[in-house]
Amino acid sequence: MIEPQKLEQIKLFFEQEDYENAIALLEKCIEENPDELTYYWYLGLAYLIQENEEEAQSIWLSIFLQGNLEEVQQWTIKLTEFLETNVEENIAEGKLGNAKIIYEYIFTINPDYENPKLLNNLIELLSDLADNLSKNNHQEMAIEVYNQILNLNSNHAMSWYCMALNYYYLRCYLEAKKAIQKAIKLDNLSIEKRHHLNLILKEIKNYPSTIEECKQLIKKEPTSIDTHYYLGNIYFQQGQMEDAIKIYKIAINLLPISSRVPIFYKLATAYKSIESQSLAALYFGHFAYSKRQNQAAISYFEKFLSTQIGEVDVDTYMSIVHCYILIDQPVSAITLTEKALNLFPSSLLLKRLNQVILPIIYKNTQEIEFYRLRFCQLLNQLIEDTKLNTLEQKQDAINSVQVATNFYLGYQGENDLEIQKRCGNYVYRITNSTYPQYCQPLPLSQSVRQRKIRIGYISSHFQGLGELYLGWIKYCDRNNFENYIYDISGYNENIKKESLNLTEKFKEYGDHIQFISGSIDNICAVLKTDNLDILIFTEIGLDPSISLLSCLRFAPIQCTTWGQPITSGSPTIDYFLSSNLMEAENGEEHYSEKLVRLPNLGFSIESSIVPILNKKRSDFEIRDNSIVYLCCQAMFKYLPQHDYIFPFIAQHNKLAQFVFIDSYLGPVITNSFKKRIDQTFSELGLRCEDYCVFLRQMKLDDYLKLNQLADIFLDSFSWSGGLTTKDAIACSLPIVTCPGKIMRSRQSYGMLKMIGVTETIAKTETEYIEIAVRLGLDHEWRQAVREKMTANKHRLFNDRECIKGLETFFQEAIHKNFQMNNELSLVKENFDK
Q1: CA–CA separation, 604 vs 796, rounded Å?
Q2: Are 336 and 321 in contact (CB under 8 A)?
Q3: What is the rounded CA–CA span in Å between residue 96 and residue 87?
Q4: All domains in the chain, ordered by first residue
Q5: Would you call 515 exposed, middle or buried from its count of C-beta atoms within 10 A (0-12, 13-18, 19+)?
Q6: Secondary structure of 636-690 as H, E, C letters
Q7: CB neighbours of 235 closer than 8 A, spacing ≥ 6?
Q8: DSSP 3-state helix, strand, coil percentages of the chain (rounded to 5)?
Q9: CA dist 643 to 409, 435, 489, Å?
Q10: Where are the beta strands (DSSP E) in 478-561?
Q11: What is the DSSP string of 410-449?
Q12: Torsions phi, psi of 3, nearest 5?
């Protein structure tokens, strides 16, 4: 019998990799108890792990030589099981080298041994090790590990492929070529992976082989974007510009507009090299537009229009119109769109774009009225002109609703319910015609009574607005709910650090997360697969794809949130998840969805991490002796009817300095706003430059320092601060706000109510000015407000009451849905009778 205490000591020596003491103890145990086979198994294992295979074999063979055939067979099975167990234990402890040595030796004693699960597990972990070595620039070590994998399974195609990449990085191109060709022979790798063979062939200057390989790939997959682009680049590098242009144009037709940037530049350069200046200007224009260099894009496009021969296509007109919109030239945008519509009178793309043209910065209130009326009239005309009788008409209609959203409509400060409903019903009519399979009502599965409720979240802005609803995922009751997260933003690891960190948090807290790219059809297929009970569109109206998807049905219950605080108008969105503290008493009148007033803010948000203040006002071009009023909202939130607020405050506080932040849309927008506000100051006999400073866009860390240096946060009227207000509260910055009638003008109001700092909430514009002036002049009161905010701001963050309210809503919505379906079934039964 084996002694348990000694066995534990032996195992401890193995864990500590103290094989000398293990061997000494085992030899003593064998001397005392020579019939206990386990001691022999461990003794041989100790030598094996030290790569003394000959001694290990000698020990185990000495046992086998003592038995008859039947006993040898039994002992072989026992030793195999013993070694197999040790492979698993070493894998669990992360000792992959030991695991590999033991696994390989099993075949020495049992040539017919098979355990695919164990082999795959070992290979997977070794692959992870090799991948990490490769990522940390240890290519030679990575290659060594891949060779170990291939010793275990010489047909492991992915290891051959990865080894090829590592040889490539080491500039060992011939070895890389052999390895990737082996991978291709074994697994016929994807088009993307086969491109690395082209890279390798290019490095060894084998251009004919590279071109031939690309052509073969195109034959296999004619719609492969990467292959066309790569082949175009080879022709480009060889100076075969006409061939390059031909291939690039095929690639462009395969790509969505947002992904064409590199090809635009290549085409422009290729046309320039063959002295086709007009077409070079066209593609330089497309390139500049894609890079948001709108003024430059317009210059190129206008040059093209003045010199082009033949008809300009719809895409080009649309790009130019978008440029005019983004540099806030709505009149030029309208003029060009109308010209294009004379050439393409049936184009729904142009009609939709024309319909949504709105200024970014309004010059006066009359402009708001004019463009609002125009928006509605053209919407009615668009609805009338949209025919859905043929496949071509349906596809045109689907494409047209992905041209733009009604984003800027919400910044006119009006109740947009009826317009949004009209738009929502219009889009639903198109989606119901094109995707009828995704527009049918979905019954709740009875299985939801016995399992977790499946909640889906879909967004194109998780990397920005995601901090609003991250708490819903983070604090979710995992016993009752299962979260599915769908990011359609085109996520990649090159996004800025703050965004990447936020994405990593969603990965950490979510049960399932998918990054979906590609067509609407692709997104629909993924959403349908998970059989959700509830789907939440976190912000409808920011992205055309989300707006389209919101008019389809992927779950029995569908919701939206105040991530974009405006009704969707969609007939397939059932609930609007809002904030009890932010909604007005008549809030129900503003939504096509059923309004749900979740406790407090509705969202459980985290506090901003306030940095150590190591900057001075002078670092931000702010006067040391001024009273700093931070006005940090997007400039299109400021409507002309409220401009007088700033000079009125300045009249009563000569030390006032209003700090604005340049528009993220570029200097043209900032200058348009400056011009308007300058006029308002002039009308009151003041100079804008004496009171206003405009700062460049800055990183979050600097922005929070600016909040710490400011004296007062001035909220905007028709659309108040959201995350900016949260940041101001984190920095204990006194906030002046005046809630309006619509929820999107009441976000700061709700946050101040939650922390119990209500003395700076105004009921009228006049009172708003009075509070702002008093805060500026009365240092003691301002300090008292700041101290109160410091004491109470914790109430705003990591709120769990709203989580309970949200989960109660989920359960009640499920119950109501079952109840409603039961009632409908009864009505149907009675009707049938």
Answers
A1: 8
A2: yes
A3: 9
A4: 4-113 (1.25.40), 122-178 (1.25.40.10), 179-396 (1.25.40.10), 436-598 (3.40.50.11380), 620-796 (3.40.50.2000)
A5: middle
A6: HHCCHHHCCHHHHHHHHCCCEEEEEECCCCCHHHHHHHHHHHHHHHHHCCCCHHH
A7: 211, 241, 243, 244, 247
A8: 60, 5, 30
A9: 19, 46, 35
A10: 481-487, 512-515, 534-537, 557-561
A11: GGG-S--HHHHHHHHHHHHHHHHHH-GGGSS--PPPGGGG
A12: -85, 120
First-last CA distance in the chain: 80
Show the beta-strand stretches assigned E in 460-574.
Answer: 481-487, 512-515, 534-537, 557-561
What does the angle CA 441 – CA 447 – CA 453 come to, to the nearest 5 degrees? Answer: 80
Q: Measure the CA–CA gap between 282 and 312, rounded to whole angstroms.
A: 10
Distance CA 439, CA 551 (A): 8
The whole model's pTM is what? 0.72
Q: Taking CA 38 as the corner, what is the angle to CA 32 and CA 40, rounded to the nearest 5 degrees?
A: 70
Contacts (Cβ under 8 Å, ≥6 apart) of 730 = 607, 608, 610, 704, 707, 793
| The one-letter amino acid at 477 | D
Q: How many residues does the chain have?
A: 833
Mean pLDDT per 10-residue interval, the chain, length 833 residues? 77 84 84 80 82 80 75 78 81 78 77 76 80 81 82 79 77 72 65 54 56 66 66 75 83 67 83 86 84 83 77 83 89 94 93 96 96 97 95 93 93 95 96 93 90 94 86 93 89 45 81 84 90 95 93 96 95 97 96 97 93 94 95 96 97 96 90 96 95 95 96 96 96 97 96 97 97 96 97 96 96 90 60 53
**How far, in Å, CA of 440 to CA of 272, rounded?**
52
| Tokens, residue 85 | 């167990």
